[in-house]
Design a protein that fits this description.
- The protein has about 110 residues and is α+β, with helices and mostly antiparallel strands.
- Helix 1 packs parallel to helix 2.
- The longest helix is centred in the middle third of the chain and has 20 residues.
């Protein structure tokens, strides 16, 4: 099973980044390092910037919210609002309510 973020260059200036989870104190730094490697590889191989980034979160079970927040800050403008949704206990009819907590991207 993969344990670290992994990236590769696809065609037409598109990069692919797989983020397996947001667990562990080092995860945001690992993600940033992999992003920097992708940018460097693209420039080295093709002499131009990336045209797009595909972020694969399939089967990502989540992890530590501060890590996810820090990772989101790599991509969002400063001051953007991020919503965290927590599932409450299911009611008798099987539906689940949502509790939203808002956070600002750190400066």
């Amino acid at each position: 099973a993969e344990t670290r973020p992994q990236g590769r260059l696809l065609e037409d200036g598109i990069a692919y980044l797989r983020i397996p989870d947001f667990k562990g104190r080092e995860r945001p730094a690992e993600i940033l390092k992999e992003l920097e490697n992708l940018f460097a590889k693209q420039t080295e191989k093709h002499g131009k910037k990336l045209q797009g980034l595909l972020i694969d979160l399939r089967n990502n079970p989540g992890g530590d919210f501060p890590n996810a927040l820090q990772t989101a800050a790599f991509f969002l403008p400063e001051g953007a609002t991020i919503t965290k949704q927590l599932l409450r206990k299911r009611s008798a009819d099987g539906s689940a309510g949502l509790n939203e907590v808002l956070h600002k991207v750190p400066s």
